[in-house]
Amino acid sequence: MNKPAFNPGSRLAALGHGFRRLRLPRMNVRKGTRIKRAFHVAIYGYGPEGKATSPSEEETTTSRPAFNLHFRLMSLGYKFRDSFSSRKNILKEVRIEPGFHVLDYGCGPGRYVCPLAELVGGSGKVYALDVQPAAIGEVQNIASKKQLANVETIVSDCRTGLHRNSLDAVLLYDTFHHLSDPDRVLSELHRVLKPGGILSFSDHHMEEKEILARVTNGQLFRPQRRGQNTYTFLKK
Ligand SMILES: C[S@@+](CC[C@H](N)C(=O)[O-])C[C@H]1O[C@@H](n2cnc3c(N)ncnc32)[C@H](O)[C@@H]1O
């Protein structure tokens, strides 16, 4: 299998990723000033106290700062990228059907939320999960503007809070290389997918060999096919 097509917009998104990799000194949130904290949030998307660990700990975005430098750069990169490729075409590779329950893990600014909501229809459900409150805020704005009643958001860095064997498909797009504990995330995705459920994967920062090895390593998923833009794995 060859690597899916590279897209020029990913250069700009990569700039956003670069910002995320900047290292700031570790700060104790109690001792740190508000300015230090705001700076940390702007770069990393979360405060010096660390990321949210579960949806129950941090369910909404309302108490979090709306501005995030990394997030804004990433969104800009994706807007540029989306002018070259259609997300509907990408989703065709996943073969999503009406009534499907789908999780967009690491949804970012929610590029797939509208086409997904349309594909699954009123009887389906779209869960959009991200560790960054700014991303989830953006998705909530989209869902409310477009009156998407079948979209739910989750702030988390791994646990979804969803039922075991409840999902038909999970999208894991350009997120795997960000994960600090990818095997834990894969195990959670395996838990929530129905037997035979679809894990649709892409990551422009990884070679095909690495993708296949990392996703199948834990014996949780088997490769099914590769499309122009994505790799499809099935839950074992
Ligand atoms: C490059 S963006 C991809 C956005 C989206 N999937 C897309 O393709 O348009 C990666 C996203 O993964 C999120 N992310 C990073 N680590 C995460 C984690 N442990 N759990 C959930 N989301 C995470 C980031 O906040 C970011 O929004």
Structure in a nutshell:
This protein is of the alpha/beta class and 236 residues long. It has helices at 9-21, 34-44, 69-82, 87-92, 113-120, 133-145, 182-192, 208-216; strands at 101-105, 125-130, 151-155, 167-173, 193-202, 221-226, 231-235.
Short key terms for the protein model shown above:
single chain; alpha/beta; Rossmann fold; 2 domains
The ligands bound in this entry are: S-adenosylmethionine
Q: What is the domain total for the residues?
A: 2
- Tally of extended strands? 7
Low-confidence stretches: 2-9, 18-29, 52-66
> Major sheet, described briefly?
7 strands, mixed
CATH-level-2 architecture of the largest domain: 3-Layer(aba) Sandwich
What is the N-to-C order of secondary-structure elements (H for helix, E for strand)? HHHHEHEHEEHEHEE
The CATH topology name of the largest domain reads Rossmann fold
Provide mean pLDDT, rounded.
82
Separation, N- and C-terminal Cα atoms: 21 Å
In DSSP terms, counting alpha (H) and pi (I) runs of 4 or more, how many helices?
8
Task: Provide the gyration radius in Å.
Answer: 17 Å
The share of residues in extended strands comes to 15-25%
DSSP helix fraction: 25-40%
Name of the CATH homologous superfamily of the largest domain: Vaccinia Virus protein VP39
Shape: globular
Structural class by sheet pairing and helices: alpha/beta
